[in-house]
Amino acid sequence: MKILVISTSLRNNSNSDILSDEFTKGAMSSGHEVEKISLRGKKINFCIGCDICQTAKRCVLKDDVNEVIQKIHDSDVIAFAIPVYFGGVSGQVQTLFDRTYSLFPWKLKVEQTHKFRGVYLLTTSSDQSTESTDLVIQKVEYWIKHFNGTWVKCSEVAKLAGVVRGLGVHEAGEIRKFPDVLNQAFKMGKAI
Question: How many distinct structural domains can be found in the chain?
């Protein structure tokens, strides 16, 4: 399978990025083709709501996101590594999700052409409770709805296939103190 891992944290040595590395190692150990990309250093413009993508089937903005969107489209599995920011996803994650609007041209009433069926989530939070990561899960599940026949026709549905929560980690690299969570990420990648 072709697996795309998207690390969304902009911080060096981030906890969610470390989880994405473990997931990647696990998926590669099972023989999958894995590509990991980071949003750090990428130019990501805000969606301007022009709706041109609904007929052109591509975003007209010229930045680094169009390449990411194409990789999302072409992958069998997507894994997002997302840290919790103020009880939800960060601005760069929301902007990426907004920009994937071009992947579901509902105005053309055409069937979805994306390949991915499984979406995995690796999330980290300073909070010890699952409440803040629940909000990230809800956001990802809502994004997935766009690819499962809710707004456009799909031959097969996409679904959230697995979640790893790294709780109680704030400082960069702190997740390394939790080998059980690192192992969960590895095993989740390996099980695909």
Answer: 1
